């Protein structure tokens, strides 16, 4: 994912866990995101499940140019719904939309899958940055709403969320 507002052509597939951070200021409040990019290898599922605990948002990302990545989504929805927090913001992301001529999964298919699983749907391009900021801002606002509604307890150490007020 394009987390640091830059794209590396030579970026290799995740082999374990990669961490990234991003600070978002929204409505005079600050959210410090820590992104856990986990390797999608079922042999390492215990490590991946440990990353689910205490998350405020879960992103399931598939490649719109690889149908098999879309067809494997049910597995990850099950994992997150079983081992992740019930009130996490769930987001399905179709990536690589900059390669439209190679698209194998239609927007409507991604949207339907997201709707069927009570997820938010975005299509992005990590390469061009298309829709990345919109995604981050939308998810930030959703997390703040859940905090205000009491669905996410920021006092609990287990939730991994700390909120700061800007002066």
Automatic annotation (TrEMBL):
Family matches, as InterPro entries: P-loop_NTPase, Rab_GTPases_membrane_traffic, Small_GTP-bd, Small_GTPase
**What residue range is the signal peptide?**
none
Q: Name one Pfam family in it.
A: Ras
SUPFAM superfamilies found in the cross-reference section: P-loop containing nucleoside triphosphate hydrolases (SSF52540)
The family database entries (PROSITE patterns) matched by this protein are listed as: RAB, RAS
GO molecular function: any one? GTPase activity
Under Gene3D superfamilies, the record lists: P-loop containing nucleotide triphosphate hydrolases (3.40.50.300)
UniProt lists the family membership as follows:
Belongs to the small GTPase superfamily. Rab family.
Its protein name is Uncharacterized protein
Which source organism?
Blepharisma stoltei
């Amino acid at each position: 994912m394009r987390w640091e507002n830059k794209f590396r052509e030579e970026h290799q597939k995740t082999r374990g866990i990669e961490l990234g951070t991003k600070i978002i200021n929204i409505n005079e409040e600050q959210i410090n995101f820590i992104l856990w990019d986990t390797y999608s290898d079922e042999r390492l599922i215990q490590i991946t499940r440990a990353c689910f605990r205490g998350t405020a948002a879960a992103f399931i990302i598939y490649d719109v140019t690889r149908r098999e990545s879309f067809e494997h989504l049910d597995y990850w929805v099950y994992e997150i719904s079983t081992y992740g927090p019930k009130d996490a913001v769930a987001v399905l992301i179709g990536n690589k939309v900059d390669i439209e001529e190679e698209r194998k999964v239609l927007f409507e298919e991604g949207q339907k899958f997201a709707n069927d699983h009570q997820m938010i749907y975005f299509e992005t391009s990590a390469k061009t940055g298309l829709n990345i900021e919109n995604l981050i801002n939308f998810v930030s606002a959703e997390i703040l709403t859940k905090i205000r509604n009491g669905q996410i307890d920021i006092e609990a150490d287990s939730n991994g969320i700390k909120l700061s007020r800007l002066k």
